[in-house]
Amino acid sequence: MKSFSGHLWYLNEILVGFTFFDSAVSLEVKSVMVKALDKNTTDHPQCTAFNPTISLKQLSDFVSQHTKQLFTALNIPQQFPMNSPDTWSNDNDYIVGQRKVRSLKVVNDAAERGVALIQAFSGVLTNQEEQKQFLLQVVKKHCCDFQNCNKSTLTTVTAAAVEATSTSSDN
């Protein structure tokens, strides 16, 4: 639950606007979302906090007047919600918005943090380029050797290594 709730910051009144352009979202749900665009909230757009009832919520529960800020930020014309969602596929404003949303680049935060971590770590270990290259080769080999790197795999591998070490020291 704690891990899941750490990712709820993605789910807020503004970013939920991307779902208007998602073909996996039904026309009925989009219709309810359009009605929710007029929902007046006095709060600033906030992240969703985890609570046990979150699984009972619908997409439209996260939509409010703040959702329109996404359209404004991406310069997407805002007339398309005035029409029925079943006509959006022929609506030029919607098509423009859909193209803009699809052209956005997704950033992998975990990969960026990994690169920053290895840069900081290698800078602490050595300033010699040859040593840094060796360190990167070791990391690459480790990634190849442990492709399924989860806790249970590492526990099994570690136990096997300890067993092999104790057996070789006995001989």
Structural notes for this entry:
This protein has helices at about 1-5, 25-35, 70-75, 90-105, 110-125, 130-145, 150-170. It has about 170 residues and is mainly α. It is elongated. About 10% of the residues are buried. The model has no long low-confidence stretch (mean pLDDT about 75).
Q: How many domains make up the coordinates?
A: 2
Tell me the radius of gyration.
25 Å
Low-pLDDT segments, ≥5 res: none
Distance between the termini: 48 Å
Which bin fits the share of residues in helices? Answer: 40-55%
Q: Tally of extended strands?
A: 0
Tags for this model:
mainly alpha, 2 domains, elongated
Provide a short characterization of the protein structure.
By secondary structure, this protein is mainly alpha-helical.
What is the fold's blueprint, element by element?
Elements: H1 2-5, H2 27-36, H3 68-73, H4 92-103, H5 109-125, H6 129-145, H7 151-170
